[in-house]
Write a structure and sequence with these properties.
By secondary structure, this protein is an all-alpha fold. It has one domain. It is built from 4 helices and no strands. It has helices at 5-49, 54-79, 86-103, 108-130. Helix 1 runs antiparallel to helix 2. The radius of gyration is 20 Å and the shape is flat.
């Protein structure tokens, strides 16, 4: 009985891809549940509390968009033949940094540094889009 390395590595790769797909599917369902909870929370915040705390409302809306972007990333993974598009990660990074800027009203230098981080992410996005580095 001869050991066929190529046959076993393909089986291992298929098993790991199946495991990854199942895990991402479960993650997508959990994120969809969290997105639904966030919608209900925002709705209750608006109807019960009114618009007393604008920062908290904006923070919750940005959390909603983070859930939405992660779900979109999982969907795009399956649509694009098991590939995570780079531009989606950059969009998620930009949204996360904006959320940090809104929620942390600390030192102005921190806000400036975070804003520079957004500019760096935007430059990276332009480079990715212009050079077609992201295969879709």
């Amino acid at each position: 009985m001869e050991f066929n390395e190529n046959k076993y590595t393909l089986k291992i790769a298929k098993f790991l891809r199946l495991l990854l797909n199942v895990a991402l599917s479960i993650l997508g369902l959990v994120l969809a549940y969290c997105l639904a909870k966030e919608i209900v929370y925002i709705f209750l915040m608006i109807t019960q509390n009114g618009f007393h705390d604008y920062y908290e409302l904006i923070q919750e809306i940005l959390v909603f968009f983070l859930y939405f972007e992660f779900i979109s990333l999982v969907v795009k993974y399956f649509e694009s033949n098991y590939h995570f598009p780079l531009d989606y990660f950059i969009y998620i990074g930009i949204t996360a940094v904006i959320r940090i800027i809104i929620t942390n009203h600390g030192q102005p230098i921190d806000t400036l540094i975070l804003s520079a981080g957004i500019v760096v992410l935007l430059v990276a996005l332009v480079i990715v889009k212009r050079n077609n580095l992201d295969t879709k």
